[in-house]
């Protein structure tokens, strides 16, 4: 435990421009800034290379997907290698013709690129795919088929889940049971303009409360990173412009935060500014919390068979 105590994590809360190349440049610069701040693990927001295009269904937007390994992992993997850091990069993955995923690549700077292209320690494919107004993700993403994973990295054992996954306690539990000490949630979530005045505070509160509960129930640290800014999903990729729908758009609510195993928010970002949010992860606190609240010890694993049912009539 001593070797992975007091690691610093960083969440990159950023806005996204229409130009995918500009977003990769910005993300790379922010990761470098986080490394200079002493961060050991750096997490980018969901689909950081693009404005959130899932506000509509448009076949041409599949052209923005990339392979893994690919251009983004090559750029960020080099930074991870140079600065001996771990980077979590959420990408639109083209797995094969007609097969696409919402995927987080975990890049570890200590890995040998000869055996791990772009220093990729592993990938996680988003398991829960939403289909709501302005969040039409089922059109683009195939549900993940790798299951829930905890990955051993140079700077600790971590788990990555993605956005809509954050509402499911089963996902957090299984990832923690696989040994993850910190759960990272790359996110793109915001307010519908017509709903913000009436429901905005409650929506953000529910989002944060749910993830703080994951920290408490599993005795882990949680880092949830969101984007900021107002978007219609405009995209410019390889010189081709794809305009988003006119009308409402989404205001991404930022509010990225880090919670400790007691559920306390130890760092929180604003709702409207780009920020690099950092905090130290001390596994002694995790050990102490689990000793005092031994939820994993007291689980009735003999009595949970019903959890695999859609509904118990």
Write the layout of secondary structure elements.
Layout: E1 7-13, H1 20-36, E2 41-43, H2 71-83, E3 86-96, E4 99-108, E5 120-125, E6 131-132, E7 135-136, E8 150-153, E9 156-160, H3 169-177, E10 182-186, E11 190-191, H4 193-218, E12 221-225, E13 228-231, E14 235-237, E15 240-242, E16 250-253, E17 257-259, E18 265-268, E19 275-281, H5 283-292
Parallel strand pairs: 1-2, 2-3, 9-10, 10-12
Antiparallel strand pairs: 1-19, 3-4, 4-5, 6-7, 8-9, 11-16, 12-17, 13-16, 14-15, 17-18
Helix pairs in contact: 1-2, 3-4
Labels describing this entry:
313 residues; alpha+beta; six-stranded mixed sheet; 5 helices; 19 strands; 24% helix
